[in-house]
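Marked as duplicate of an earlier ticket. Keeping the data here for the record.
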Amino acid sequence: MSRDPRPIVDAQRSENAAALDLGLVVAAHGRHAIVETPEGQRLRCHPRGKRSELVVGDRVRWQRSGDEGVVERIEPRRNLLFRRDEWRTKSFAANLDQMLLLVAAQPVFGESQLARALIAAAAAGIPALVGLNKIDLPAADEARARLAPYRAMGVELLEFSAKADPASTQALLRERLDGRTTLVLGPSGAGKSTLINLLVPKAHAQVGELSAALASGRHTTTSTTWYWLDEARRGAVLDSPGFQEFGLQQIELAQLAGLMPDLAAELGHCRFGNCSHRREPDCGVQAAVRAGRIGATRWRIYCELYEELSRPRW
């Protein structure tokens, strides 16, 4: 009987990969990425092969090829935050310690987008904070009221005004961000650019450098960018493109209720084990809606997502 050669080949590949340089992906656009070495040097790299699966935050094994580098392998990821609709998958970042979901008192944020981003983070096992920006505006009280259900279900809410009160904002966020890798995610107009420039004074200069290195002036609006919070490189914030839609086709229908904390708290009290929590009799979740423990808006979002995830997939 011939011996299976694959274990030997796999062991050789692992040994060869371990001998390669280790790097961190700090920006990516198309088939090219900027990889940072442990010493802090950055160089343009491209993946081996035709397809690129590189995501900002990836730890990679690479080797030099002239003035650039070739990524030979992506190290195993702790997590990956992404969104998926019927047509495409959009990855935000990998190996995150937490996500800061930024909304603003004005313009009015969409609760469906807020809920979707929190569900995606929960599915990926990434702790999430919600940041309410522009609390100096008259609409702040209304925004607080809309966020009250999220605070009640255990989501940490941070309030600040990045433009009107930068010193207090920086002090508040530094306490939460130092020593961690944090993705800043939010809809357009929430103030992400202002916040990033406040936390990382040299961010604007880095944007120009990365755009030139990637030969793309648009990468900062279409992909995530990594910024160190300090020269010791102990913590980082990752700026992400604004979004209007947030598909959740990666979520299995049976997972949905369990990924929404207010609904998850009511599970286990239904007559039917496969209850959809929408029309069945003796449903614990529906009883919680009637009792006011689950808000009407949250219930509407759940039903909309249930219908969306029930449609035939590609």
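See parent ticket for discussion. The domain at 13-74 is CATH 2.40.50.140 (OB fold (Dihydrolipoamide Acetyltransferase, E2P)).
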